[in-house]
Amino acid sequence: MNPHHDTEPRLDWLPAEPQGHAVVPAGVHGWDAVRIPRFWANRVLDALGDGAGAVIHDGHCMYLLVAHGTADDLRVPAAHDIAVLGTSTYVAIPGIGRHAGTPGIDRLRWRTPPTPDGDYLTNAGLLQAAIDNALGPRRAAS
């Protein structure tokens, strides 16, 4: 890889220690995170199917990585506690070895780890459709 050519995905934001973790600023490495409570996240992931990229699970919420800025217009009712974490927020990132089934790992882990080929971002448009599907029809504003 040419170090001056930026078309290949970089995973330099992952913690160096496979079983470790790091707190990383969102919006700096080309991605933002969308935080979804576990109850809704399972439904959203079912609706996304193979369209989901990397997914972090912290025991309470799941975080889907999307290209920076693409989820800024995500439309969700505030009552569902779904939030876009972009510039000026931080995300806890598990080491690449922290995943379901890893002994002693019950909290921060990868549900779906990122892959070096760059296929770790969820398309924000597909995510919006999956959220709409998972939350059900919204009532029109009066």
Walk me through this protein's architecture.
- The chain is built from 2 helices and 7 strands, in the order ββαβββββα.
- With 142 residues, it is α+β, with helices and mostly antiparallel strands.
- Strand 3 and strand 4 form a beta hairpin.
- It has one domain (25-135).
- Helices cover 16% and strands 24% of the residues.
- The protein has a 5-stranded antiparallel beta sheet. It has a two-stranded antiparallel sheet with strand order 1-6.
Key structural traits:
single chain, 142 residues, alpha+beta, 24% strand, disordered N terminus
Topology readout:
Blueprint: E1 21-25, E2 31-37, H1 38-48, E3 55-57, E4 61-67, E5 83-85, E6 90-94, E7 109-112, H2 124-135
Antiparallel strand pairs: 1-6, 2-4, 2-5, 3-4, 3-7
Helix pairs in contact: 1-2
Gross geometry: globular
Q: Quick one: how many beta strands?
A: 7
The number of distinct helices, counting runs of at least 4 residues, comes to 2
The radius of gyration computed from the alpha-carbon positions, rounded to a whole number of angstroms, is 15 Å
Question: What do the pLDDT scores average to?
Answer: 85
End-to-end span in angstroms? 55 Å
Helix content bin: 10-25%
The spatial strand order of the largest sheet comes to 5-2-4-3-7
- Percent of residues in β-strands: 15-25%
Strand-and-helix sequence, N→C? EEHEEEEEH
Low-confidence stretches: 1-8
Query: How can the largest sheet be summarized?
Result: 5 strands, antiparallel
Tally of separate domains: 1
- Helix and strand composition category: alpha+beta
